[in-house]
Design goal:
The chain is mainly α and 164 residues long. It has ten helices and no strands. The longest helix is centred in the N-terminal third of the chain and has 25 residues. The chain starts with a helix and ends with a helix.
């Protein structure tokens, strides 16, 4: 019974997140952060595994906003979902960069090699810049000249601005 109640709580919290953010966007309001902090973090971890891509993306966005280190493992695990929507993957990469956790560096560097979509590689190189770890610098520099996408090259140049 306790497990069922916990599942219902998680579902209600995730639904509240999607409804709250959707209503704010529909009404022309921008998110101020309240919707990210009112949902229990465990509910966001659970929402990363939902079938609905909007819910997964919103959960990733909220986890990035919170910048809590324990979000790293669930975010990384969410990238293992092979059929993931590109918007979800982008939200996860953004969140990984926002966490400020150096453990994200290999995940984001792998993205530069693996992701076919330029907008996803662009988000990864931007996230690497936000982390500003020394081991990422050669990869960011390489992206400025070697990536076929002008979007990625441009974001790589911007990422260099995070280094002293």
């Amino acid at each position: 019974m306790a497990r069922i109640l916990r599942i219902l709580h998680v579902l209600a919290a995730a639904t509240a997140l999607v409804v709250a953010v959707g209503a704010a966007e529909r009404d022309g309001a921008r998110a101020n952060g309240w919707e990210h902090t009112t949902v229990p973090i465990e509910a966001l971890f659970e929402a990363l595994r939902f079938d609905d891509p909007v819910t997964r993306a919103r959960a990733a966005e909220s986890l990035g906003y919170r910048r809590e280190p324990e979000a790293f493992a669930p975010l990384r695990a969410a990238l293992e979902r092979p059929e993931d929507d590109p918007n979800v993957r982008s939200a996860i990469y953004t969140a990984l960069g926002a966490l400020g956790d150096p453990r994200a560096v290999p995940v984001l560097q792998d993205c530069l090699d693996r992701e076919q979509r330029a907008e996803l590689r662009a988000e990864c190189v931007a996230a690497l810049g936000r982390l500003a770890q020394p081991e990422s610098l050669p990869r960011i520099i390489a992206a400025t000249r070697d990536d076929p996408s002008i979007l990625v090259r441009s974001r790589a140049v911007d990422a260099l601005g995070h280094y002293d």
